[in-house]
Design goal:
Elements (H helix, E strand, L loop, with lengths): L2 H7 L5 H7 L4 E5 L4 E4 L4 H8 L4 H13 L3 E7 L6 E10 L5 E8 L1 H23 L3 E5 L5 E4 L9 H4 L29 E9 L5 E12 L5 E10 L1 H22 L9 H18 L4 E8 L1 H8 L1 H18 L5 E6 L2 E6 L4 H22 L7 E8 L8 H17 L5 E3 L10
Parallel strand pairs: 14-15
Antiparallel strand pairs: 1-2, 1-5, 3-4, 4-5, 6-7, 6-10, 8-9, 9-10, 11-13, 11-14, 12-13
Helix pairs in contact: 9-10, 10-11
Length: 423
């Protein structure tokens, strides 16, 4: 029983003794409403009453003096940071009523906390209402208990009621993988988990879902709540940028006609390979070849036929080499092949296969009296000292011209360089 109730229930208690020691505002009035006694805490309240700033409290005070009934009233005193909030109890004393005791309790903290809670809730409601993301909460049985007022996936919020998140999920597939932890029933916080959901119109959307688990007072799992953001368009834009970047990278590094590496890309990669080969003492072969009598094809059959020949040569290179090898059209009818970790036997074998392919190309595209063929030069990476790609290509070019001078359709394989540039 609090002090106010105890006093009213026991008329023998002395109001005059209570007023000075009461922790909050306290005052004693006579039957005419005049102040008989008040503590210091009551001064602001009495000043506000005298200035007619607390009309409701003044009316309640008069009513209690008239009918002898206790009353409670709220009073807000002006001041800094929203002023002071009081819960005022009016207790008539005596029979007939001769005096009235006013006791006040400071409820400012309670009021401020309540206002902050209300503002926080309103802030949450406003943010959820205007957000393009959708907030959600599942109940302990895993079904949706709340979805943003706007709804999601083309469904209204009401259409989500009682449905399970799995109702909107897609079967696991490489193009729409399901995360290892399904965020809609996760029991640990998850951040930006990518999930694919089916919209009402049947289309597929990609969403980033963040969530936290809901726990009851005993710590048991009571559901999950979180926010889902539609990132479908952003993901599509990113994929388009990746494809565009890949295309640009391909265009920058490949020959537009044959699809083989262009000269710059080939030399850049070859420099890396040569450094690794020298460091690890590995052999490697560079083959340089061009087409004999190619100009006759262009002159007699036309440049379109010449382009077809070059594409056929590129296809031969692709089929002849391994995945780890490199092939390039460095210009005109000149080609380079890098054979990773190979020596003389491999160079001889590849040259033989190129010559066999050249014979087949000649059958289709050659001009009578001027057979299409390859002049091939092959050299090996130096192991006695470092050598860059340009220097190795220059040696291979020289080897190819040795073959050409000996008669078209020939191969010249240079001697291995063992030490100090000597064979």
């Amino acid at each position: 029983m609090d002090a106010e109730t105890a006093l009213y229930a026991n008329p023998a208690l002395n109001p005059e003794a209570l007023v000075p020691v009461f922790p909050g505002p306290a005052a004693l009035f006579d039957e005419n409403g005049a102040v008989l006694l008040a503590n210091r805490a009551a001064e602001p309240l009495l000043d506000a009453l005298a200035a007619d700033k607390l009309v409701a409290l003044a009316a309640a005070l008069d009513a209690s003096l008239a009918d002898g009934l206790p009353r409670q009233e709220k009073a807000d005193l002006p001041g800094l940071r929203g002023g002071t909030a009081l819960q005022v109890t009016l207790l008539p004393h005596g029979n007939p009523v001769g005096r009235l005791l006013l006791l006040g309790r400071d409820t400012t903290l309670e009021r401020n906390l309540l206002q902050a809670l209300m503002q926080s809730r309103q802030l949450f409601r406003d943010l959820v209402a205007c957000s393009t993301d959708f907030a959600w909460e599942t109940k302990p049985d895993g079904r949706f208990g709340f979805v943003s007022p706007r709804g999601a996936l083309g469904f209204t919020a009401r259409e989500f009621e009682g449905r399970r998140p799995d109702d909107f999920a897609l079967p696991d597939a490489p193009e729409t993988p399901r995360p290892s932890i399904w965020p809609f029933d996760a029991q640990q916080p998850q951040d930006a988990v990518e999930v694919f959901l089916r919209r009402k119109d049947g289309s597929i959307g990609c969403f980033e879902v963040s969530c936290v688990a809901v726990r009851d007072s005993q710590g048991a799992h009571g559901g999950t709540r979180g926010v889902a953001r539609d990132v479908t368009e952003a993901r599509e834009r990113l994929e388009a940028l990746r494809r565009a970047h890949k295309t640009l990278n391909t265009l920058a590094n490949t020959d537009g006609l044959t699809g083989l590496l262009n000269r710059r890309a080939f030399l850049d990669e070859l420099d890396k390979r040569l450094a690794r080969h020298f460091r690890n003492r590995l052999t490697g072969t560079l083959i340089y070849f061009d087409l004999d009598n190619f100009k006759r094809v262009n002159d007699v059959r036309g440049h379109q036929a010449g382009d077809e020949v070059l594409k056929a040569v590129a296809e031969v290179a692709r089929k002849t080499l391994r995945v780890v090898d490199l092939a390039s059209r460095i210009g005109g009818d000149e080609f380079l092949l890098w054979l990773e970790e190979t020596g003389r036997d491999s160079a001889t074998s590849i040259a033989t296969r190129l010559m066999e392919a050249a014979a087949e190309i000649n059958k289709q595209w050659g001009v009578e009296g001027f057979p299409l063929g390859f002049s091939i030069g092959a050299v090996f990476a130096r192991l006695d000292k470092p050598e860059n790609a340009e220097a190795l290509v220059a040696r291979a070019d020289a080897a190819m011209y040795v073959a050409k001078k000996g008669g078209k359709g020939r191969t010249h394989i240079a001697e291995d360089i063992v030490e100090d540039g000597q064979a």
